[in-house]
Amino acid sequence: MDALASLAQGFEVALTPTNLLFVFIGVTLGQIIGALPGIGPSAGMALLLPVTFGLEPVTALVMLSGIMYGGMYGGTLTSVLVNVPGEAASVMTAVDGHQLAKQGRAGAALSVSAIGSFLAGIAAVTALVFLTPALSAFALSFSAPEYFLLALLGITATASLGTGSPVKAMIAAMLGLMVALVGTDPIQGTSRLTFGSLELLEGIDFLPVAIGIFGIAEILVSMEQSQHVEPIRTRLREMWLTAKDWKDCRMAILRGGSIGFVIGLMPGAGPTVASLLSYVVEKKASKHPEKFGRGALDGVAAAEAANNSAAHGALVPMLALGIPGSASTAVLLAALVLLGIRPGPQLLTDQSDLVWGLIASMFVGNFMLLIMNLPLAPLFASILRIPYDYLVPGILLISLVGAYATSLSMFNVGLTLLFGMVGYLMIRADIPRAPLVLAVVLAQLMETSLRQSLMLSEGSLSIFVQRPLSALLALLIVASLALPAFTVVMSRRAARRARLASGITD
Amino acid sequence: MTATRAETYSCLRRTALFALGATLALAAVPGALRAQTAPTGPIEITTGTSPGGTPDVLMRRAAKILNEQKIITNPLLVQNRTGGSWMVAANFVLSKKGDKNVVLCIAQPILTTPITQGLPTVYDQLTPISMFIQGDLVLVVQPSSPVKNLKELVALAAQRERGVKVAGAQSGSTDHMVAGLLEKAGNIKLNYVPFDGGGAAQAAFLGGNVELMTLTPSEALPLVESDKARIIAILSDTRRTEPALKDIPTAREQGYDVVWGQSWGLAGPPDLDAGTVAFWDDAIAKLVATPEWQASIKDNFLRSEVVPAAEAKAHLAKLHQEHLAVLRDLGLAKATPVQ
């Protein structure tokens, strides 16, 4: 009941007119920043840091965190409509969301994302209210061995992405891992495959790859066939969710939200890993896995629920321990320091007004985002009524400006165009693109944590099975690899038996 | 204790006074050459960290006070040009020869990245302005650890080579150099595990995966108060005087000559005119005298001893040599290519 009393006190803080206004400003900005590729929520928050000078700490914080989760809602927009992920966590949304848009169901994809994000967000904040101290201990039980296994699970999971053969998906994932090798060796600090180029010293950023491979490649392909492409016809009636859609997505939101929250807790994994894993889990749990990659509404719902609840979950280690759980919470921590508040384990008790005001503001902010997004979904979806030819220059401009904004350098613009061509070739060769992009995201976590684990264990592989959590994850990986192989063998056997049986009767 | 405190304060005042004096002296030189000239238009402070990194936070706070107190009326804009371990930021400023509207935040990677990557040195191409923020470091162990002081730590590490695990930031970072210095001073071999930044390393430490870690006092004290870490040594020259830190013995007191810290400052692009340097020199001297700045320095257990423009070049050269020596010992220094 302590928590409830504190929360009530938090609402008192969050519902003052000033704070309400700044929550509104924050979530609106987040929505816009999330939708623009290139500027992710963390960069957007950093840009607005100076604006918060002179504000009350709690006012500043509710606004900045509004940008953080508002970005998770906004990232959906460009992913679904033009297949350019607005930020890293929206890659999985782009995969199915854009397919849905092509089928005229952009409105449904956007609405289910908004509802999924909202429900998962509210659930995650509720968990924050009651469980923050307890969960922070759990978050710390994750370390290098668990991160390695989690990333490995992600990589093996990419094999089941896409509609074609798993082999092609793995080829794409391997390409992604190779792209991620470029840069500075994370342990030794020596440069790898940089060919003396300074721009490559910190490796190839995820965003130029994602924007190029998804957005630019899409444009290239569509230009080829522009004469044949009809504008996507959408009727207002089709923009809303049907009762059946909702029934299909209920469990997806629940599963996605829970997985997202747990992964968001861990400092080290972020919303991107969360949305990938929950998408894959959803594919396994779904009654129609064949639809995934071809426009599965429940896939979109799971991924979106996951990334929003992960964004909230990352606040647990930040509030309870002063450890940033993600790039965005690192900026929040910086804001605290700039406002003269020292983060750390005492934050919850020393600054309870601030912490509970922040938590209460997230309830309010998620409501605002839902109200903002639901009516706007059909409106934004109608953009697709414009013939694609006319949209192309705009998409290209947004993509390239986004690539430039990631590091304020033209080098990334060139990289984006290069990966656009790579993506084009992949579409032509019918190789799924999502595994490559995800591998780029996961590779660094995978490599670094593998080498850290082996340093911690002084070379012994037993570290991956001795710790209870890693043993569990290792088991999951083995199962995820063995089960499909097992079913293939079994079905072949069945087929052969059937053939033999029919041969005999012939 | 009071003597040390007075000493530090007088030292502080001396440097501040010197800075002022130097500026006045420079301004007094006949001819317009030495006079202060304020640049027109907004000024960019370039940093190489992403938003939220210590240098970024420090520069944003300095910029805020400089503008709020009208010490500098030009809008100051902190810009994060990340990439290449600060070399993207450094190269950006190096390419702005004589530009009055850009300065570079000087942090450790400006010195160390050229050494570890075998690139031409950067610090000596810039126009030094001032080094004005210093931070100390402490060594922490797990609260449950049997180790109570540095001597016991060294004894533990001596039992088995690479037996004591240390978490820290990337290879070649401050944390790594501290581990290297400790290895040399104690004649031991530690197991240094680099993480993706200080936050991740701290998570690994709090999760009980490693025995030892280097932290700043402002990071360490909240952990100590909640019994999540124990400080065994501070790596400053002499003991700190604040009540919260005065009981922490220095490494030197404990018989190990490990003195290391961090420092930050500003430098201009190559060929920056003397007038603009004088303008900055004066602004920094005024900045550190403001109560707002002093309060924020005190809150974060930092020090603000100004090395003015006149001395900054020699100071940076000295720092470069120190870093080069430590990185050589760690086997991380690459030979500088012939320029």
UniProtKB/TrEMBL annotation, chain A:
**What is the phylogenetic placement of the source species in the record?**
Bacteria, Pseudomonadati, Pseudomonadota, Alphaproteobacteria, Hyphomicrobiales
Name of the molecule in the record: DUF112 domain-containing protein
* Record-linked InterPro entries: DUF112_TM
Pfam families from the UniProt entry: TctA
Which residues does the UniProt record annotate as the domain DUF112? 20-438
Q: Keyword Membrane: yes or no?
A: yes
What sections of the protein cross the membrane? 20-39, 46-69, 107-131, 259-281, 318-341, 353-374, 394-427, 470-490
* Keyword annotations from UniProtKB, A to Z: Membrane, Transmembrane, Transmembrane helix
Automatic annotation (TrEMBL), chain B:
Signal peptide stretch:
1-27
Q: Which UniProt keywords apply?
A: Signal
Q: Which SUPFAM superfamilies match?
A: Periplasmic binding protein-like II
Q: What is this protein called?
A: Tricarboxylate transporter
Similarity annotation: Belongs to the UPF0065 (bug) family.
User: Could you confirm whether the keyword Signal appears in this record?
Assistant: yes
Q: Which Pfam families does this UniProt record tie to the protein?
A: TctC (PF03401)
Q: Does the keyword Transcription regulation apply?
A: no
CDD domains, per the entry: PBP2_Bug_TTT (cd07012)
